[in-house]
Write a structure and sequence with these properties.
- The protein is an all-alpha fold and 312 residues long.
- Helices cover 69% and strands 0% of the residues.
- The chain contains 19 helices and no strands.
- The radius of gyration is 22 Å and the shape is globular.
Length: 312
């Protein structure tokens, strides 16, 4: 029997414009089953695999929906040279969202190769370099550190000339600062990944509860995607030992009590999202249902992989 590989042209057209952010609504009606079918049909057609915009966007849709049945299909696309740069980065992001820890070494290796290529080719730098700390691992960190050394040296040399080009110095300073931030975030992620549970969960909860930028969003997904009694113990340890320390000394009396309650509810909603809340914890959340519904972004942010991998 001949396999039907015809592609819904309306689907292709919809995915040839960016579906991220508010524009996700334009493709939200597609079921996961429809996306799976059309993606497999599309990857059987070389002209669509070569369509950088379409492939980058359909891969975004797969990670947004977390369509895990496409794991093996995406794994075949992350190999070097299969996709154009933007689509290749999108495939690596999608493998981060769908993959297991054993997949991450291939993701790191392939991204670091793209990273090295981008450092030599200004035309593709904007498609690749901003995502290093979102996608990479130890090999990516090594490239980041090497580039940071180079840019720091160039900045110092530009500053030390008799007539400094302040535009160039400023540009190099921005690049150096960006690399330092990426290095810090990726190094911290790798440190956390090397911890044992529940210490790892305790640290992730700390970052999430303190809302430490990208690391907070990443921490949330790490906790809710990989729940266990050990990770729940780490969350509870933070809630027991550290929540009061988050309240400013200036907040005393009723104000301090309200802040502690808000933080406790936020942590308990996290446990509930992890599927690890006890009946007593669930009952406590229910008592404050109206309070939680008034500020769902704080208590129940429900971050997805778009938040983790695609929002700078």
């Amino acid at each position: 029997m001949t396999q039907n590989t015809s592609v819904d042209r309306a689907f292709v057209q919809a995915l040839q414009s960016s579906p991220t952010g508010i524009y996700y609504r334009d493709v939200a009606h597609y079921s996961s089953e429809k996306i799976e079918t059309e993606f497999r049909n599309a990857t059987a057609q070389p002209e669509l695999v070569a369509d950088e915009e379409f492939m980058a966007n359909v891969l975004f849709l797969i990670r947004k929906r977390e369509i895990r049945t496409l794991h093996d299909d995406v794994a075949r696309l992350i190999q070097p040279g299969v996709l154009k740069p933007r689509a290749s980065v999108s495939a690596l992001k999608t493998m981060v969202s769908l993959g297991t820890p054993s997949d991450m070494s291939a993701v790191d290796r392939n991204f670091s190769e793209l990273q090295r290529a981008a450092l030599k080719d200004p035309h593709i730098q904007a498609e690749i370099l901003p995502w290093a700390e979102r996608v990479g691992g130890p090999q990516t960190l090594a490239v980041l550190r090497s580039e940071l050394v180079t840019v720091t040296r160039e900045q110092r040399a530009a500053e030390s000339t008799n007539s400094p080009d302040f535009t160039k110095v400023s540009q190099l300073d921005r690049v150096r600062s960006s690399l330092e931030n990426q290095e810090f975030v990726l190094k911290r992620k790798l440190e956390i990944d090397g911890m044992r549970e529940p210490e790892r969960a305790f640290t992730l909860t700390d970052l999430y509860m303190r809302r430490v930028g990208h690391l907070a969003i990443w921490s949330y997904k790490q906790l809710v995607d990989n729940p266990s009694p050990a990770s729940a113990a780490g969350v509870r340890a933070f809630m027991s030992d550290s929540v009061k320390g988050m309240v400013p000394k200036s907040a005393s009396g009723d104000a301090g009590s309200r802040l502690i309650l808000d933080l406790r509810l936020r942590g308990l909603c996290l446990l509930l999202r992890m599927g690890q809340a006890t009946p007593q914890e669930t009952d406590f959340i229910e008592q404050y249902k109206s309070r939680i519904e008034q500020n769902p972004v704080f208590y129940r942010p429900n971050y997805d992989w778009e938040d983790v991998l695609d929002r700078l």
